[in-house]
From TrEMBL:
This protein's UniProt keywords: Phosphoprotein
Lineage: Bacteria, Pseudomonadati, Pseudomonadota, Gammaproteobacteria, Candidatus Berkiellales
A Pfam cross-reference name: EVE
Alphabetized InterPro entries for the sequence: 5hmC_binding (IPR052181), EVE_domain (IPR002740), PUA-like_sf (IPR015947), THYN1-like_EVE (IPR047197)
UniProt-listed PANTHER family: THYMOCYTE NUCLEAR PROTEIN 1
Key word Phosphoprotein present: yes
Residue ranges occupied by any EVE domain in the UniProt entry: 4-153
Protein name: EVE domain protein
Originating organism: Candidatus Berkiella cookevillensis
Any coiled-coil regions, as ranges: none
Keyword Phosphoprotein: yes
Length: 156
DNA sequence: GCCAACGTTGGC
DNA sequence: GCCAACGTTGGC
């Protein structure tokens, strides 16, 4: 099975890489994806062993802060069934779950953020939807080339 | 806090 | 099935 690469966004005020790092097994379910395209990526294409950049959005310095490994492939997001959850969706049912989540485990937390600004300056990454205007998808595929390019930016 | 871009909803 | 209205995302 070919390993794939991803980018997963989270608002650090809700769930940051430090939250993940503080957990006993540094493993957590990635709940709350409520966008069909993002869900489809998770449900249909994400496999155990895939790796993803952890991205902080909607914060002072938006950017990539580390790497997680997918340790469990998609299963129903039960937060959608829980009325008290901010992720509750009355249209999702146990028999017919509308939303899915995966489990991620922290692989590496970067010493510094690779900021969105820096990513935008790298012409090799110009095709990434992330750096393009108006992109709002919270789960994005990353090509192997883009993955390598971004990792190289760490060493500078 | 502002607002552009986008996705979803619902009336018709 | 169209599309206006609305809600959300997320950079700045």
């Amino acid at each position: 099975m070919q390993q794939k690469f991803w980018l997963m966004k989270s608002e650090p005020s809700t769930f940051s890489i430090d939250h993940l790092a503080a957990l006993p097994h540094q493993t957590e379910h990635w709940e709350g994806v409520r966008n069909y395209q993002a869900r489809n990526f998770m449900r249909d294409e994400m496999k155990v062993g895939d790796e993803a950049f952890f991205y902080h959005s909607n914060c002072d310095t938006p950017g990539i802060v580390g790497i997680v490994t997918i340790v469990k492939s998609a299963y129903p997001d039960h937060f959608a069934l829980k009325k008290s959850s901010p992720y509750y969706d009355p249209k999702s049912t146990t028999e017919n779950p509308r939303w899915y989540m995966v489990d991620v485990k922290l692989k590496q937390k970067f010493d510094t953020v690779i900021s969105l600004r820096t990513l935008k300056e790298n012409t090799a990454l110009a095709k990434m939807p992330l750096v393009q205007k108006g992109n709002r998808l919270s789960i994005l595929p990353v090509t192997a080339n883009e993955w390598r390019t971004i990792l190289k930016m760490l060493k500078k």
